């Protein structure tokens, strides 16, 4: 498949004079309002439309691990058959997730042509007008291949702006050794919130906490808390209006608070935080931990001999099972050098329904990483290879993922009040009812003046 | 080949610029050399500090969405601050941090300077040991302390376990997190401030101390009436420098970002962290620029007041 070539000047080697002129131009531009700092860190890998920059946090990384190799191979395959080449730029995860590289690049009009986006960031970029519509580049056959709800979460007015590369549901991981040491068996695995607190009490010791939820403020903590809100049929926003001040939110805030109050959960996680199962559950610091499906691959490579299992999130009395379906998507920059070619690359990389495309996705979702594939054909191919035939992955796909909802695409003005409520209740003993009401009031104030795309 | 002909003499019609009678004076040459040495620093400050400050002041009058779009909003960004509870909360946290960190760092580093002031065997090693934390990146400092302060299992938890305090979460408890951050900041900066005090102490004439001793002054009296008054300019520099550092320095962002990300429950959300959040999480670049301008204005005001009340650290001296 070949992408439309872009008629632009061929890339030429800059002379000293052009460099000087460019430098002065940049300085002048900054003087009329563009922050100077935005000039820093840009790799300007454009090449005048013949090359598309693809910023990501997988590859080519120094460790050259399987995920890095998958990205490198993806770019090589595309470049072998297309005039407009893809050039990968690796940005370390922490910088990509909470640093300034992406933001400063977009602010200065030097954003990448293709990049990865989480649901939490979708509206920020969409409302900023930098997401390219991928609909016309995505064949109907591909659209139909995606599981329900996934494309809708990345769409506005029926147009698709991002293609999901994976589904990452959350569950509770437990350590078999910790349960055995506490004299507990599989029959004691908690199904309700009350049981969780009681079992965690038995598992807690001088050097171990019984259960763990994320404690660090940020998008990830909100993402991991939403299932407990949904279990009581709560939601932050309903029909465009705030709905956070609800019994469901209050009880979910209280549940996390109780784990700290009862001293069965840590106030601070080890390693990379709540999602890092190897550093917390694997090290024996906790006996049960909420994390995502990615932890299966992590444990496989970094703690091979560690014995563990997973259970669905425990539910409140009368509640329903729920999980959050996280997962990143490829998006194209509408203000990039060649948005049409970028859209074609994305739909080729993630949406191809031919054998090669399905295999590429199977590799990513079940060999290189452990995800639930977002496409039916890929799930079928993975099933045929026995990827979800047994063990925790089977449980993730057959029992946990079906109870999931796509991660909400709340803009920062909605995410932040919820984050503050979670933090205040979990770690500062705030009254959950008041915290929910305060957060609702802040969200309401924002919604009254919000003019962007619909918030799901 | 050697020529013997004399060089032609210039005709009277040709006017040539008159050479100065004498070369530059020594004073002028020294001034030029001083400017030349200062130039790289001055240019760097102009390009990377002064210019961005001016730009930030300008950007504060715009709504900037983070995607290159600007719209003029006048003073709207400044008016927003009045109703921004999170801003006031972060200013309060920064205030508490300043009034605890600055005196504590002062006392500790001054005590260290007095301790290592006199020469004794291994003095170089002792001074280096105190200064060592300052040469490490703040991110690394944050990671080291995170490791030491791990709940239940960290080195500090193990040390405190016999006292029944092994369960204390220093970075996860809102009432303790800010204090922990202060202690770590002091540990990081004490070596640098100790060196500044040492330099100041070197300037205290030994004769004055000796004369006081001969007159029967006790060690405390020598410190109180000889050393302390002569150290006032140094003390003033340390206080001003650490106040500015505490509000806008690296420890106000890097350290807190690595240690707690502003948590738990916003207990360590300093004003610089809040500005960062506004700029890079909320994409409110204009509001962040306005906040920066206000923080700089507050700092300038505080520093100006310090200068005014202490006559630049000279206090009651002429």
User: How much beta of chain B, percentage-wise?
Assistant: under 5%
* Share of residues in helices of chain A: 40-55%
- Give a short account of the largest sheet of chain B: 2 strands, antiparallel
Low confidence ranges of chain B: 1-8, 10-14
Q: What is the tally of helical segments of chain B?
A: 13
Structural class of chain A: alpha+beta
Number of domains of chain A: 2
Written overview of the protein:
- The complex is a heterodimer of chains A (456) and B (318).
- Chain A has helices at 16-31, 66-81, 93-98, 101-107, 119-127, 140-145, 176-181, 193-203, 219-231, 247-261, 294-302, 339-351, 355-368, 376-384, 391-400, 412-428, 432-449; strands at 51-56, 85-90, 114-117, 155-156, 159-160, 163-164, 168-175, 237-238, 241-242, 288-292, 308-311, 323-326, 329-332, 404-406.
- By secondary structure, chain A is an alpha+beta fold.
- Chain A folds into two domains: 42-167 and 327-396, 3-Layer(aba) Sandwich (D-Maltodextrin-Binding Protein, domain 2), CATH 3.40.190; 168-325 and 410-449, D-Maltodextrin-Binding Protein, domain 2, CATH 3.40.190.
- A five-stranded mixed sheet of chain A has the order 2-1-3-13-6. In chain A, strands 7, 10, 11, 12 and 14 form a five-stranded mixed sheet that branches.
- Chain A starts with 15 loop residues before the first helix and ends in a 7-residue tail after the last helix.
- Mean pLDDT of chain A is 88; it is low at 1-47.
- By secondary structure, chain B is mainly α.
- Chain B has a single domain (78-310), classed as Orthogonal Bundle (MetI-like fold).
- In chain B, 66% of the residues lie in helices and 2% in strands.
- Chain B contains 13 helices and two strands.
- Chain B has helices at 26-59, 76-80, 85-115, 123-135, 138-148, 155-160, 174-202, 206-214, 219-230, 232-248, 254-259, 271-280, 285-310, and strands spanning 62-64, 70-72.
- In chain B, strands 1-2 form a two-stranded antiparallel ribbon.
- In chain B, strand 1 (62-64) and strand 2 form a beta hairpin.
- The longest helix of chain B is centred in the N-terminal third of the chain and has 34 residues, at 26-59.
């Amino acid at each position: 498949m070949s992408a439309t070539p872009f008629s632009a000047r061929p890339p030429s080697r800059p002379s000293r004079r052009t460099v000087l002129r460019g430098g002065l131009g940049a300085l002048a531009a900054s003087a009329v309002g563009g922050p100077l700092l935005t000039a820093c860190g840009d790799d300007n890998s454009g090449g005048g439309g013949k090359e598309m920059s693809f910023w990501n946090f997988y590859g080519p990384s120094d460790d050259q691990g399987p995920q890095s190799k998958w990205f490198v191979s993806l770019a090589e395959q595309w470049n072998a058959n297309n005039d407009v080449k893809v050039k990968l730029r690796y940005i370390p995860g922490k910088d990509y997730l909470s640093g300034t590289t992406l933001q400063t690049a977009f602010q200065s009009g030097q954003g990448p042509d293709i990049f990865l986006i989480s649901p939490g960031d979708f509206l920020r970029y969409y409302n900023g007008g930098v997401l390219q519509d991928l609909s016309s580049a995505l064949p109907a056959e591909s659209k139909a291949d995606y599981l329900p709800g996934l494309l809708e979460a990345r769409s506005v007015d029926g147009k698709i702006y991002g293609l999901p590369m994976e589904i990452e549901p959350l569950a509770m991981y437990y350590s078999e050794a910790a349960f055995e040491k506490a004299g507990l068996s599989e029959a004691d695995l908690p199904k309700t919130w009350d049981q969780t607190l009681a079992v965690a009490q038995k598992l807690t010791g001088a050097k171990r906490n019984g259960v763990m939820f994320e404690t660090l403020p940020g998008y990830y903590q909100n993402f991991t808390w939403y299932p407990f809100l949904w279990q009581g049929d709560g939601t932050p926003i309903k029909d465009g209006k705030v709905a956070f001040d609800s019994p469901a939110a209050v009880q979910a805030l209280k549940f996390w608070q109780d784990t700290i109050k009862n001293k069965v959960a840590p106030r601070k996680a080890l390693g990379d935080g709540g999602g890092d199962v190897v550093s917390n559950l694997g090290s024996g610091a906790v006996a049960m931990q909420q994390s995502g499906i990615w932890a299966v691959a992590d444990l496989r490579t970094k703690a091979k001999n560690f014995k563990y299992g997973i259970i669905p999130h425990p539910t409140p009395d009368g509640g329903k099972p729920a999980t959050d379906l996280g997962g990143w998507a490829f998006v194209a920059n509408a203000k990039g050098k060649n948005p049409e070619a970028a859209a074609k690359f994305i739909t080729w990389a993630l949406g191809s329904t031919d054998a090669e495309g399905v295999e590429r996705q199977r590799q990513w979702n079940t060999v290189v990483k452990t995800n639930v594939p977002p496409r039916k054909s890929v799930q079928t191919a993975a099933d045929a290879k026995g990827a979800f035939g047994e063990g925790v992955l089977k449980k993730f796909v057959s029992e946990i993922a079906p109870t999931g909802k796509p991660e909400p695409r709340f803009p920062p003005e909605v995410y932040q009040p919820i984050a503050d409520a979670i933090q205040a209740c979990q770690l500062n003993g705030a009254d959950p009812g008041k915290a929910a009401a305060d957060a609702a009031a802040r969200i309401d104030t924002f919604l009254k003046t919000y003019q962007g795309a619909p918030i799901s | 080949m050697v020529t013997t002909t004399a060089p032609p003499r210039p005709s009277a019609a040709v006017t040539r610029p008159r050479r100065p009678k004498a070369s530059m004076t020594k004073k002028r040459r020294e001034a030029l050399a001083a400017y030349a040495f200062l130039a790289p620093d001055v240019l760097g400050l102009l390009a990377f500090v002064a210019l961005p400050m001016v730009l930030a002041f300008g950007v504060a009058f715009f709504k900037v969405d983070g995607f290159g779009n600007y719209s003029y909003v006048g003073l709207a960004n400044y008016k927003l601050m009045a109703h921004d509870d999170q801003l006031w909360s972060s200013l309060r946290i920064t205030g508490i941090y300043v009034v605890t960190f600055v005196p504590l760092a002062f006392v500790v580093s001054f005590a260290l300077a007095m301790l290592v002031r006199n020469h004794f065997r291994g003095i170089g090693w002792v001074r280096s040991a105190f200064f060592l934390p300052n040469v490490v990146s703040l991110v690394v400092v944050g990671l080291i302390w995170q490791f030491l302060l791990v709940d239940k299992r960290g080195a500090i938890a193990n040390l405190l376990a016999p006292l029944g305090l092994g369960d204390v979460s220093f970075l996860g408890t809102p009432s303790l997190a800010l204090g922990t951050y202060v202690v770590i900041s002091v540990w990081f900066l004490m070596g640098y401030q100790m060196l500044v005090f040492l330099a100041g102490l070197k300037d205290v004439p030994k004769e004055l101390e000796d004369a006081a001793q001969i007159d029967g002054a006790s060690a405390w009296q020598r410190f109180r009436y000889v050393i302390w008054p002569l150290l006032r300019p140094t003390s003033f520099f340390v206080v001003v420098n650490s106040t500015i550092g505490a509000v806008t320095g690296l420890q106000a962002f890097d350290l807190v970002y690595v240690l707690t990300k502003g948590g738990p429950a916003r207990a360590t959300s300093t004003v610089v962290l809040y500005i960062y959040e506004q700029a890079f999480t909320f994409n409110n670049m204009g509001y962040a620029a306005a906040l920066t301008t206000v923080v700089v204005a507050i700092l300038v005001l505080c520093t100006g007041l310090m200068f005014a009340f202490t006559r630049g650290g000279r206090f009651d001296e002429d």
